[in-house]
Amino acid sequence: MRIAAFQRLALFDAVEQAAEVLARDLAWAEAQGIDLALFPECYLQGHSYNEAIARRRALSLDDPDLNALIARFAAGRTTAIVGLFERRNDGVYNSAIVAKSSRINGVYAKAHPLEKGCMPGRDFPVWDESHWRFGINICADLRYPYTAHRLARKGAGLICNPVNLMLRPHKAEMWHRPGISGLQICARHTGCWVMASDVVGSNGDGWVSYGSSAIVDPNGVVVAKAKPYCEDVLVFDLPDRQPERGFVQKAAVIAT
């Protein structure tokens, strides 16, 4: 299975522009034979820790406008994982949709949201793609080992981690390396491959992200890492079939 992690400039309140970038990237991904493409946390509308902003940006998965966008940017054979603020009933969730062939095939909601007003997700779905099974943990979920372990127990061989490490400059510097270390610890303690997709740039209010996109093998070896401070895309070929393996259950505290 060929996978790709896209590191892209952060966009804010620019859904149409984000959809254009996604359409361009996914057209390129299909031409490159990419089976699964990962994009950053809350990429579609832009991330925020502000409750009012998150609620204003949130979109329902049955919104015709959202589905029209998905039909435009995820029309091909490449499966895309795209982060967004999701409106569900009266709640707001920090979610990631799984989309392919112009439709949403599923959604994962962040189990441990740090964003004010966001509800925690309770489900840990997995999906099959090209003889592999994958699941999603979003950003801070990796601090809690059980979130990745739940996916591994369901047979996932790949854990996809959309992140958005846009922080105050001193915090962005502080969390850059631990962000990669968290992926390595997750991989070693689950026996899964792990890939992360982050944003780069600034939000215009002094917050910055260096970019912590990476792909890590089950032994914790970083096999691909994005260049800091700039847009990048990581492409890696996993084995044609997911290896048979037992779930590696170890006590762990995963720090990011």
From TrEMBL:
<dbReference type="InterPro" id="IPR036526">
    <property type="entry name" value="C-N_Hydrolase_sf"/>
</dbReference>
<dbReference type="InterPro" id="IPR050345">
    <property type="entry name" value="Aliph_Amidase/BUP"/>
</dbReference>
<protein>
    <submittedName>
        <fullName>Predicted amidohydrolase</fullName>
    </submittedName>
</protein>
<dbReference type="GO" id="GO:0016811">
    <property type="term" value="F:hydrolase activity, acting on carbon-nitrogen (but not peptide) bonds, in linear amides"/>
</dbReference>
<keyword id="KW-0378">Hydrolase</keyword>
<dbReference type="InterPro" id="IPR003010">
    <property type="entry name" value="C-N_Hydrolase"/>
</dbReference>
<feature type="domain" description="CN hydrolase">
    <location>
        <begin position="1"/>
        <end position="240"/>
    </location>
</feature>
<dbReference type="Pfam" id="PF00795">
    <property type="entry name" value="CN_hydrolase"/>
</dbReference>
